[in-house]
Input
Amino acid sequence: MAGPVRGATPAYPMGGLWMTHPYSDLPPRAFWRSGVTDADRLLFADLYRPAIAIRSETRVATAGSCFAQQIARALRGAGCTVLDAEPPPRAMPSDVAAAFGYGLFSGRYGNIYTARQLRQLLDEIIAGEPDPACVWTRDDGRFLDGFRPTVEPEGMDSADEVLLHRAYHLERTSRMLQEADVLVFTLGLTEAWEDTVTGRVHPVCPGVAGGQFDPARHRFVNFRVGQVVEDLTAIHAALQRFRNGMQMLLTVSPVPLTATASGQHVLTATSGAKAVLRAAAGEFVADTPGSDYFPSLELVTHPAAGGPWFDANLRSVCAAGVARVMEVFLTAQGLRPQAATAATASAPDTPQEDEEDSADALVCDELLLEAFRK
Amino acid sequence: MTRLCLIGNSHLIALQQSLQETPERWPGLTCTFHGFRGRTALNTQVQDGVMTPTTDGARDQMLRFSGQARLPLDGHDAFAVVGLNLKILHAMTFWKVARWHALPSIRMASDLADLPHAVISRMAAIAGLAGFVAGLTGMVLAQRLASALGRPVYVIGQPRLHRAALWGEQGAFFGLGRAIVNGDGPALAQVFDAAMTRATGAVGAVWLPQPAPTIHDHLLTRPRFMLGQVRDPASGAMRPDHTHPNARYGALVLDQLARLTGGAP
Output
């Protein structure tokens, strides 16, 4: 005779008695031995079960700290549709484009390190007007957008130019978000500097990459779990205004803090920040349908994940580490990196370097022959 | 006496002809000319002061245009890279797909976000164009010469198109008429020269802008400095040419070089 059955939990005989408990029939991934110790810890096949499916036709928006760039790159490399609100001009070389913040994320917003920063950006987009407080000046007299100071490494000519570009950025980002099925957001930091006059946080402390630090005006903030959850919830609500049903896939960047203003040692500040972000992501995902978490942080920093996956500075994730994280992500999503095309070694001995030259090639050749024939 | 070595494509001919016609104008200059067409100059190497080909095609051209497959370069005081696809039309290509704050035409847009162009900063335009031209034949050759020979290297672009190109296929293709009518010409020319100055500086060379008297409407060249027509190699008949400068133009460029190299009278 079968023992008592409660819900879907089966019962098992133990010592002549039928016993039951929630761990009895859990899958191998639920147990450390089968899920970690005895598992293939390079592939970690069952570590991440996507609740949000990303297919080649899924329109993905990306944002976040610098590690988010890797996700965008990997998705593009796998043939996915990663949206780009502000693509660079066709003729701009990729290294220059990257230096000017093009193609790194789905908007040219630069690194968005904190949930508060993204929340405020979305609020500004919804308001539809650039915040004039964005204009920073540099020591050399040039101008920057204080909410994305790194996207113009040489600064702009005037405050007007900054505001024109910010208005364009907000509108283009708005249009991009209206097309997005999924936002992949990589949480990077809990620390930020807030302008107490505007209430806005900046991605870097005023005075570091432009602007002037004013201790009476700029305030250090270190967001706690509840605040990050609140910001994520507000972000999710705002995203629904751009496109109803947009999903949010969260990750936490494994990259440690460059510096902390918290008064702690930078190592403990890093652990604290990542713990806060990880906890906030977990709480948000647990409470928010249409959201998910991908464990970049665990795949790079957990001792069970192997490694070390950092470069010699113990901060930058090494190329193998990035590749490994992205392989886990893509494999779980049923995606594969696509092969790159091979480069040619030497230039052809033909006249074509652009359309214009090819048209006049014969004439140029003839002129040269006439003038220089030996 | 300054010994100047000039390496370039068909745009080199204007300089050679001006020197042949009035050698007395530059008594302090001795010039050697080496021609290459297309991208072939890239298929060379400079070692121990000698330029040698790395492909059969480059070897053929060196024999055809210079009479030797080993070009001794170390006896020269300075070098000039001429033409080789360095031209303002690359700025026009940028302009076709991008707009920046300094351009008057950007103020004509009622909604920037609707523009089919990328809206970029002026510095991004300069950096982008500099990055683009860095990969072109003339700039790669300049870098190679500057690093291998340790002598001054001057970079001279192809002239702007003949004014008549405005009404031709090239003018339409590059939107020259629209740029001039919109008032974008000065800002475009400024970005071009700034980008070329940056790109040449990055490879240890010096950019020589097009001589001011030859420029028309910022983006074109005055007809009296251009060939105007050339013989069509296929038919043998003369046909319009909007690309190549004449000896009068070449003389102004040689004047620039003479001043910079100390070869001026």
